[in-house]
Write a structure and sequence with these properties.
Blueprint (H helix, E strand, L loop, with lengths): L1 E4 L2 H11 L10 E7 L6 H14 L5 E4 L6 E4 L9 E3 L5 H12 L11 E8 L2 E10 L5 H15 L11 H10 L1 H14 L16 E8 H14 L3 H17 L3 E8 L16 E8 L6 H17 L5 H10 L12 E10 L13 E3 L9 E8 L2 E8 L5 H20 L31
Parallel strand pairs: 5-6, 9-11, 11-13
Antiparallel strand pairs: 1-4, 2-7, 3-4, 6-7, 8-12, 8-14, 9-10, 13-14
Amino acid sequence: MKTAPMTFGQLSVLRDLDLSGPDEQSDGNLPLVFDVPSGTDVDEVTAAWWRLVDRHEALRTVYDRRAAQPTQTVRPFRKGELGTVELPAATREAALRVAGEWAEHEIRIDVEQSWRGAVAVHEGVATHLVCVVHHLAVDSAACTLLESEFNTLVSGGTLAPDPPQPVDLALDQHGDEQQRRQTMEFWLEEWEGFVDEDRQGDDTSRRFRAALYSERAQDAARTVSERLAVSVQSVILGAAALALFGLKGRDRVTFGLLAGNRMDKRWQTLLSSMNQLAPMTVAADGDADPDGFLRTLYMNSLERLLYGSYSIDELRARLTEAGCHNPDPLQFDCYFNYLGEIVRPPAAQSPARDDVEWFDDAWQGGPRFNLRAATGSGLHLSLTASDDYLGAEATGRFLAAVEAALVSLADGGPDTVSEVGLAPLRKVSPPPCTKDGDTVHE
């Protein structure tokens, strides 16, 4: 076994979990379902999974969270029993229900492996690999990597040489004193420029979750990205800021950007959680040129993402020592997370193609505005927002306003930021309601 400090990303996940009560530690569980190719049997699926457990140390690591500097300990690889679970139907939805049920039960990261899983079968035929993996072991990029490698193995392919491991990253991060010093100095200068309203407080009002899928919005975002030579995600963020300004009557907002921290090629194939908050205040003068606004936003976001890897404990200590207002690096209320090229299109006849889709399973804690964006066959926007921050109807209207802003920016019509179109281009239905007024997904 080998022991090392936690990586900065792992430490951020741990400190976030520290804010949850003992009965809410399952918040760190991520349900995963991987499709199994037709003709693949249970033994082949099992062999592929154990190959991944052998390959990635994060899947056999335990964590000591009691020490002042928490540690990770990698256990030797030992193949065990994976087991099977019978599905009532050979569908992805049935497998996701199983994973969701498992995710409600805490993984005890101090004494057990960071995952639980089984081969899902229907009438004796393997259909899916069902897993729950702890967020300490994976982030969104790592989940995509894990699925890709699983698909390669069950299809008879071979994997690239063994990747770097979290312990390697931890030693590199903790040992680079110059980078740590520069990062601390950057955030110390930035900290007082954040909007107080967007710092995490005591908003316990009800959360609403809605989603929007738009091929037109994705085409527009890519058109603007190519014209201005800026990233697609910064264009989407700019449209989101303008939509939020329009709904709330503001001209400044502080977003907690989710930094992926995989720009260094050494760590792109690392299975671990590397996401951290990189807060940034976006401001817009209504008379400003929209293209200039987007270029500035892109450069500012890129700079902050470059400093998105840091020890959350060290930063909190330095901010407190400097007397900074609200020195907690986790206390932000307005999240933006770009997930990359992962979205799957809704079914051809799905109402999600033409309307805002509502869900009844919004997590009732955490930030009161949490926007996720993913690209692929179209742009997929998912928003969880609180009643006090936006309200139910405005949650749906916000998503439609982002789509409208992207199309307006791509058309090149507006001469100023205030002229960017925010009027919905599609039907926006209100959230369905029960007799007692509670919002539900039908």
